[in-house]
Write the structure tokens for this entry.
Amino acid sequence: MAPLVIIARDLSRAQAEILRGLLEAQEIPAVLSQEAAGSVLPVDVGAFGQVDLLVTAEQAERAREVFEAFTRQPPESDEEG
């Protein structure tokens, strides 16, 4: 297996799941890493709630581009205009 690199740190579990889905939709396999106690206990605070998002070293640059493009997008408005 190719070495994994962290492309985002200290995410909430929900943020990490959304970003993993975004990357996998672009055919970039992603892995979530969380402190062992945080993945078993219903704790979402401090070090126990932090999740890292990892991809293979070969996909890291592309994954960062997708991640950055996603975070630059303005939120959609519910207002009709």
About this structure: The longest helix spans residues 13-25. Helices lie at 13-25, 36-40, 46-49, 60-72.
